[in-house]
Design brief:
heterodimer, A: about 425 residues, mainly beta, Porin, 18-stranded antiparallel beta barrel, 23 strands, disordered N terminus, B: about 260 residues, outer membrane lipoprotein receptor (LolB), chain A, 13-stranded antiparallel β-sheet, 4 helices, 13 strands, about 15% helix, globular
Chain lengths: ~425, ~260
């Protein structure tokens, strides 16, 4: 079936390629990016992992304009990681055909799509799976196969998506940091009987007013977020008086990802009032027997020409909410985000974003500092610092299984404070 | 009849040049000289000079489209390479708030940004956002008009005050040459009414027999000694660009 569906597009592409007046050399672009990354953790990992992690990545982008209305984009990505074999991974970030039709755009292939406005969490954004092993903040995404039909008329946009093929979330391996005390198995289970071949559907409408940008979206299909399930072999436990008291020596149970079928409705809005931006993202998600909602709402205020300099200072406040409370899969279920953004507006485009996410009910905070500075026309330096503050030590695998600490979801990461320096070279 | 009205408009235009200008009517006439192009595109090399001999350059491509209620401009960056593919879409209006959207290709994100950052520097240059967007005459109130020369050209010098209280300037003095009514020089006075920057436009070329454009713009900050040059090339007019080339979806495919 899928061959049949692809055939007409392929035929059109081949026709387009065969046009005699096409000059490939003039209409092709290639660009490449090399990344060198060093991560230093404050201490050795709770499961014995290394303090120092080196990694190298490469991303290329090839673009070809076939004619005025058709183009191809291919963006492969690969990373090698010194410590974590799972973080050594490759992904086709994009490989799609863009067709400009009469009153519509058709984008077919593997793409990246972002929805949303807030800084704290990307709740509404659901088209692409998160490449979690790549970045903790969820801003790296795996390529998603899709057919996307887009319409835009004056202030309104409509996007329709058919999403064949599911991508599993990436999780750190045994030697990787920033992970739970147990490894997440590579095999996943699905609610849908056809597993990762389930075809998801999504749609979004956006209104672009003078000051208000409003988006309403719907998604039906396989949840991008994994439910982590534990399979325990009772014969591999240690018992005392009929009570399990620990894991047998050498036994390492694994978590497995379970992906549910969900329906998610999303709302994202930004109201722009001069230097003040009001932001809101809210979702309602139903799957299985459960329905929950979550929101991230706040504002960003920018002081242009801060302290009579060329710099801009921005102040961010957001509240993050999840109706499931402690049972939420996110650590940010009733949390405040306070952030401060500095843009020096210098020739090196130096920027800094410092933020803290504070759990309003339990004593947990996530501190982040992100900065970047251009070193030359083709070299960029990036800095990322994160500290996880939680009152109790990292749980052992057995503690994690037997006494889940839902009030302190950052606990598994308290030994993982890190400073990451990255150099990105563009050629 | 048609011949008559054609003659009439010819007479009128020569009358206009001979008339007694006010600052406001001159600003309107100067604007009329550069507008009416429909759509245009050009390549721009911006060079920042820090006053200590160091320089840095950025290359971008700019497209413009005129609307009845303003003008849209789409800038796409080619260098520095870390921002290659980033795009800035601005919708400027003679009256009311301007709108701006920034597209960040690394995360495929379109952000609407607060348009009141207009007094801030554009890409670390001596040009502020408000200096590079269309300076519609309605955005100013006008003072006295005088005469001077610029590069031996007889010029009118008009005084104007930005209406927007978020502007970085208290007032500007604008040199407009008497022959072509083109803006040759602008002095920008900061909020304390001290001379801050001097803009000069040179190497004007006539495109398609009707659109005068400077090939070189220089903004010199007299308080810091830094200056920025904008070298324009590859001007094209009337290519049939339309709304679709300046839409939200256009940002996603900007390159």
């Amino acid at each position: 079936m899928s061959h049949l569906a692809i055939a007409p597009w392929l035929a059109r592409l081949l026709c387009a390629c065969a046009l005699p007046n096409l000059s490939w050399a003039a209409d092709m672009e290639a660009q490449h990016e090399l990344g060198f990354e060093h991560t230093a953790f404050g201490q050795a990992g709770a499961q014995g992992q290394s303090r120092q992690h080196l990694s190298v990545s490469v991303k290329s982008e090839f673009w070809a304009e076939l004619n005025d209305n058709n183009s191809l984009t291919v963006t492969p990505f690969a990373r090698w990681d010194e410590q974590d074999s799972r973080r050594s991974h490759a992904d086709l970030r994009e490989a799609f055909w863009l067709h400009l039709g009469d009153g519509f755009e058709l984008r077919t292939g593997i793409r990246q799509v972002f929805w949303g406005v807030t800084e704290g969490r990307h709740l509404v954004d659901i088209i692409n799976q998160t490449d979690l092993i790549e970045r903790l903040d969820g801003e790296a995404k795996l390529g998603q196969p899709m057919v996307n039909l887009a319409f835009e008329h004056e202030a309104q946009q409509v996007d329709l998506f058919v999403l064949p093929g599911f991508r599993k979330r990436t999780f750190a391996g045994e030697e990787g940091r920033l992970r739970l005390p147990l490894i997440v198995d590579n095999d996943a289970a699905y609610e849908a009987s056809n597993g990762e071949r389930h075809v998801d559907l999504a749609a979004r409408w956006q209104y672009n007013g003078d000051a208000l940008r409003l988006g309403l979206s719907g998604f039906h299909g396989t949840n991008r977020e994994a439910e982590l399930r534990l399979t325990l072999d009772p014969n591999q436990l240690r018992y005392s008086g009929g009570q399990a008291i620990g894991l047998a020596a050498g036994y390492q149970p694994q978590l497995s990802a379970y992906y549910r079928q969900i329906t998610q409705w999303g709302l994202d809005a930004q109201l722009t009032q001069g230097d003040l931006l009001w932001k809101l993202e809210a979702i309602q998600q139903s799957g299985g027997a459960e329905r929950h909602h979550a929101a991230d709402a706040g504002f960003e205020y920018t002081q242009v020409g801060w302290l009579d300099s060329n710099a801009d200072a921005g102040w961010l406040v957001e509240y993050l909410y999840d109706s499931r409370g402690e049972r939420a899969t996110s650590a940010f279920e009733h949390d405040w985000l306070l952030g401060w953004r500095l843009s020096l507006n210098d020739a090196a485009s130096s920027t800094l974003l410092a933020s803290v996410i504070i759990d309003s009910q339990h004593d947990e905070q996530l501190l982040s500092v992100e900065g970047q500075r251009r070193l030359s026309d083709s070299l960029l330096l990036e800095l990322e610092l994160r500290a996880f503050l939680s009152p109790k030590p990292v749980p052992s695998a057995w503690e994690f299984i037997s006494q889940p600490d839902l009030e302190h979801k950052l606990r598994p990461l308290v030994d993982d404070d890190y400073l990451r320096l990255s150099l990105r070279y563009f050629l | 009849m048609r011949l008559m009205s054609g003659l009439l408009s010819l007479c009128l235009s020569s009358v206009v040049i001979a008339q007694d200008w006010t600052s406001e009517s001159l600003a309107q006439a100067a604007e009329a000289r550069i507008r009416g192009f429909g759509d245009s595109s050009a390549t721009l090399v911006m060079t920042l000079h820090n006053g200590a001999g160091e320089q840095a350059s950025r290359q971008l491509r700019v497209k413009n489209l005129e609307y009845t209620d303003g003008e849209k401009s789409l800038m796409v960056f080619d260098t520095p390479r870390d921002v290659r593919g980033s795009a800035l879409l601005s919708y400027t209006h003679p009256q009311g708030e301007d709108e701006q959207w920034l597209y960040l290709p690394a995360i495929k994100r379109v952000k609407q940004i607060g348009a009141r950052n207009k007094s801030g520097p554009f890409m670390a240059s001596e040009f502020a956002f408000e200096d590079i967007i269309t300076p519609f005459w309605q955005k100013f109130s006008y003072g006295e008009l005088s005469q001077d020369t610029f590069n031996d050209m007889p010029c009118y010098v008009l005084n104007r005050h930005p209406n927007d209280r978020h502007s970085g300037y208290k007032r500007q003095r604008v040199w407009i040459d008497q022959e072509h009514l083109l803006i040759r020089q602008v002095e920008y006075y900061d909020r304390r009414d001290q001379l801050l920057k001097v803009y000069q436009a040179t190497d004007f070329t006539l495109h398609q027999g009707q659109y005068w454009r400077p090939a070189l713009m220089t903004m010199r900050n007299v308080q810091t000694g830094k200056h920025t040059t904008l070298a324009w090339s590859e001007h094209q007019f009337g290519q049939g660009l339309n709304d679709r080339d300046f839409s939200q979806n256009a940002l996603l495919r900007a390159r």
